[in-house]
Design brief:
Layout (H helix, E strand, L loop, with lengths): L7 E3 L6 H13 L4 E4 L7 H11 L4 E4 L2 E2 L5 H14 L4 E6 L3 H8 L6 H16 L27 E4 L3 H10 L2 E4 L4 H18 L8 E10 L3 H12 L6 H9 L3 H13 L2 H6 L3 H7 L1 E3 L1 H14 L3 E5 L6 H8 L5
Parallel strand pairs: 1-2, 1-10, 2-3, 3-5, 4-5, 5-6, 6-7, 7-8, 8-9, 8-10
Length: about 325
């Protein structure tokens, strides 16, 4: 078993809500610190957490992450306060900006100044949750106040970050940072120093600040099967500007270039093949139970003090949860 650290899990709903609820109950039974859900195009993440809250009693529950453009600060505050109350104070509200194409095509909103807009959104949200008058904003204007619930001034807010500027902001204004596709070397070289800079800017230390990193994990006899699943699932991310910039900073510019060449030819198989085994081995925790545990531990050693075991399609996620479970005590 791993030495005790705050290991979390990503438990997506998949096709079966009842199966997902059973998995989050298993994660709680195994001693995981938290269960996070993504927010894509299926079940609403915060509503899903309400179902998870009903199926559990102890485990932390978080969004990893909900885009700020899907709800106004007032609506987000109402939803978060309700869920925090329902879960007995277990909510960890992970917020992100998503991507321009998604925000515009799905939600009819615009991302204009992502760092400034995240700063403004969190300031308004924190004020509402604390029972204080919300500050004036440029993107969002509201005089909303919670009534009959709260206040919740200490409800933890985490900010998803990839770039140095957003990482500094997360360190400055949030209670934690949420990472996806950030491998341990990027965490060590870029994430941790920028978070420290943000904390220093706010006159704070890193004490109590969580760095949540999703770690795609799978106990498998043949790593190639998991690598193939990951290549299919990562195709979208290799086409998104925010992730592309981070991947190039991570030293995988050759993967991006090969992907672009294949995309220009319309060659889907070559696009998948462009995602190198070197990249996948750096990102994932795949192989024997011992290799999975070691892969998760790499993140903790790099400075992500709350690594989260995440599922890989077409692998046994329950078995992986059991293999990577935190040591008791």
């Amino acid at each position: 078993m791993l030495a005790r650290m705050a290991i979390g899990s990503f438990v997506s709903a998949g096709r079966s809500l009842s199966d997902a609820m059973a998995r989050v109950a298993l994660a709680e039974e195994l001693g995981y610190d938290a269960a996070y859900v993504t927010h894509i195009a299926g079940r609403d993440s915060l509503t899903l957490l309400a179902a998870y809250a009903a199926a559990t009693a102890r485990i932390g529950l978080g969004t990893g992450v909900v885009p700020i453009y899907t709800r106004t600060p007032a609506t987000m505050a109402m939803t978060a306060a309700t869920l925090h109350e329902q879960s007995g104070g277990r909510l960890r509200l992970g917020l992100g900006v998503s991507h321009r194409g998604v925000v515009e095509a799905w939600y009819g909103q615009t991302i204009d100044k992502p760092v400034a807009e995240m700063r403004e959104y969190v300031a308004i949200l924190r004020a509402i949750l604390a029972g204080e008058p919300p500050p004036a904003g440029e993107k969002w204007q509201t005089s909303f106040a919670l009534s009959g619930i709260g206040p919740y001034p200490d409800l933890p807010i985490y900010v998803a970050a990839l770039s140095p500027a957003m990482l500094r902001l997360a360190g400055e204004i949030a209670d934690g940072a949420m990472l996806w596709l950030c491998n341990p070397e990027y965490i060590r070289a870029v994430v941790v120093p920028e978070l420290h800079a943000g904390r220093e800017r706010a006159g704070k230390t890193m004490d109590g600040f969580e760095v949540v990193a999703a770690v795609p994990s799978a106990v498998v006899e043949d790593p190639g099967t998991a690598f193939a699943s990951m290549r299919r699932d990562l195709l979208t991310y290799f086409g998104l500007p925010f992730y592309r910039a981070m991947l190039e900073r991570s030293g995988f510019g050759e993967d991006i270039a090969a992907y672009d060449e294949a995309a220009a030819r319309g060659d889907g198989e070559a696009m998948q093949a462009a995602i190198s085994e070197r990249f996948l081995r750096a990102l994932c925790a795949i192989g024997s139970p011992e290799e999975v545990r070691a892969g998760v531990a790499r993140y903790d050693e790099a400075g992500a003090n709350a690594p989260c075991v995440g599922p890989i399609a077409r692998t046994d996620f329950e078995g992986t949860l059991r293999a990577a479970a935190p040591a008791p005590g």
